[in-house]
Amino acid sequence: MSAAKIRKLTDEQRSVDLKSVEESGWEVKSDRDAIYKEFTFRDFNEAFGFMTRVALRADKVDHHPEWFNVYNRVNITLSTHDCGGLSERDIKLAKFIDGAAKVFA
Asked: What is the pTM of this model?
């Protein structure tokens, strides 16, 4: 984590940046300040390969998703615990995750 304090998305960021990930299928959770998306792959190997790509990136940027995997499905929730809600980290990781999923499309 960087020395700079991580801040929640501003109203302006929510109307622009958050909207861009919503347009790619991410949903704002109704019960908390987080975004969620479900991914489906051809089989477990593809799902695991996708998770590995995301895990390597998440570890590099020190921002880790909450996720759940069963066979070919991966469900991901993003929220920044350091600020108690959505931050720019979530938007950046969501965009990376979408790109990683396209490799398997």
From this structure: 0.92
